[in-house]
Write a structure and sequence with these properties.
- By secondary structure, the protein is α+β, with helices and mostly antiparallel strands.
- About 20% of the residues lie in helices and about 30% in strands.
Length: about 525
């Protein structure tokens, strides 16, 4: 598109959002005012600081990691390897009596509450944030069990304590939370939030700690076992949004909510149907994909194959994948012939020797070697990339064959998509002046199509001639049975008011007011 841009990353440090607690009407709802910070060039620079950590900081969602057994409380590598540098929405809570104030991210993609501890002596990040002092609280109860949570830039670690937590205008008693004594890396040093308040299920809670919102329900502090998010995407508005416990505020949405069942407790996970670009199927999720509604992620994350198609359609510029182009060049015609012969698409890459087939999808062929472990790792990495490139090419070509395009057109299209694969650093720039020609991107949930316009999925940084625009889409690949997976972050939740209904184990979406 001729776009000129400096390296743009999806890791956007959005800092210091001073939260508000609004005087609630007499409707039995608990309201948490949320402030939003605009994307800022200086914060983007801060987000890129660090040497070895730089690559990890440059992706909005590096990888979600799932436990094999959600009931295993000893697992600490539970939540997500995700980077909160790009988080936009913050709120304020108080811990202890009298309340010690902390700014937190309300995160439906994790389940623990943690804040820095006064016993954090050796992490520089702790000196830039308020720290919880148990000696100053009359309601503190000692626990002492150790805890660690793994993120993309390292683990925060510490120990559990119990105390009262003030959320909005209510006080939740005896809440289990983590006092963080180690916060490694630039993420927690540069970021302006102090901690995380998880709103996921207990099944993914480190140490099997009871989430704060469970305690709200158990202690009878809210009317209904429901909470809802309204995220204001108006960059000029003073109010960033509102998190409501105990129900929904009818002023935050229009029409009726479309509800979909929670398919697996842990994350707020549900089944999603086809993804459309400009009203046309991408072909990848026509048979269904898993999705997660995640308030702790700013962007929309999905399978690389679809993200490449979306980026192609909107003219986003990624980094060329030589592996992808090599596969298309050497095997493109073969893949097309096999698809025309009605070979099973999932088995094609294994049949031509680029993947093994495990019954559900291709898997890369690991090289068994005891001679040189480093060589083995290097070969396996190359094999993984080749297998993934082949699988994406099959999806693209199958989709184009359905549109009766010629072999030459299909090969050209696949090569073009190789150019649009998001880079390992996560950046994909678009032409700020070209949004009028970009297509809508739509998601099918419970049979209803939810549209996002270019103005809603393109993120703008800066103003005037210095403005830069990035795609609101980033890649994540989770294999079956938990994938393919989409993470619907704030780009989606800002467009659609979202209800998290624990009582009926369902999630609802309606057009935000």
């Amino acid at each position: 598109m001729g776009t000129s841009f400096r390296p743009v990353t999806a890791a956007l440090l959005l800092c210091l959002l001073l939260p508000l607690v609004f005087a609630a009407p007499n409707d039995g709802l608990v309201r948490i005012g949320i402030k939003k910070r605009k994307f800022d060039q200086n914060n983007r620079v801060a987000a890129q600081l660090g040497s070895k950590e730089g690559e990890l900081l440059n992706s909005s969602v590096r990888k979600y990691r799932f436990r094999g057994n959600l009931g295993d409380a000893e697992e600490t590598d539970i939540v997500t390897l995700k980077n909160y540098m790009d988080a936009q929405y913050f709120g304020e809570i108080g811990i202890g009596t009298p309340a010690q104030t902390f700014t937190v991210i309300f995160d439906t993609g994790s389940s623990n509450l943690w804040v820095p501890s006064s016993k954090c002596y050796f992490s520089l990040a702790c000196y830039f944030h308020p720290k919880y002092k148990s000696s100053k609280s009359s309601t503190y109860k000692q626990n002492g069990k150790s805890a660690a949570i793994q993120y993309g830039t390292g683990a925060i670690s510490g120990f559990f304590s119990e105390d009262s937590v003030k959320v909005g205008n209510i006080v939740v008693k005896d809440v289990q939370f983590i006092e963080a004594t180690k916060e490694p890396g630039i993420t927690f040093l540069a970021a302006k939030f102090d901690g995380i308040l998880g709103l996921g299920f207990q099944e993914i809670s480190v140490g099997n700690a009871v989430p704060v919102w469970y305690d709200m329900i158990e202690q009878g502090l809210i009317n209904e076992p429901v909470f809802s998010f309204w995220l204001n995407r108006n960059a000029d508005a003073e109010q960033g949004g509102e998190l409501v416990f105990g129900g929904v505020d009818p002023n935050h949405f229009v029409g009726e909510h479309t509800y979909v069942p929670v398919t697996q407790k842990g994350y707020w996970q549900f089944d999603m149907g086809d993804v459309l670009v400009g009203g046309k199927s991408t072909g990848f999720c026509s048979g269904g994909c898993a999705a997660i509604a995640d308030s702790g992620t700013s962007l929309l994350a999905g399978p690389t194959a679809i993200i490449a198609e979306v980026n192609h359609a909107i003219g986003a510029t990624g980094v060329v994948s030589q592996e992808c182009k090599l596969v298309v060049s050497q095997y493109g015609e073969t893949i097309i012939r096999m698809l025309l012969a009605r070979d099973e698409p999932l088995k094609i890459c294994s049949q031509i020797g680029l993947c093994e087939f495990d019954g559900s999808r291709g898997v890369s062929m690991g090289i068994q070697s005891v001679v040189n472990e480093n060589i083995e790792k290097a070969v396996r990495a190359t094999s993984d990339a080749t297998c993934s490139a082949c699988e994406m090419a099959v999806v693209w070509m199958q989709n184009k064959l359905k549109q009766n395009e010629t072999q030459e057109q299909i090969i050209e299209y696949a090569n073009d998509l190789c150019d649009r694969i998001p880079s390992p650093m996560g950046e994909s720039a678009v032409d700020c002046g070209g949004m009028s020609t970009m297509p809508n991107v739509s998601f099918t949930i419970a049979g209803k199509v939810f549209d996002l316009t270019p103005e809603q999925y393109v993120l703008k940084i800066g103003e005037g001639a210095a403005a830069q625009c990035i795609s609101g889409f980033t890649a994540i690949d989770v294999p079956p049975p938990r994938g393919p997976l989409w993470i619907l972050g704030d780009v989606f939740m800002g467009r659609y008011h979202t209800v998290f209904d624990y009582g009926n184990l369902r999630i609802g979406f309606a057009e935000a007011a």
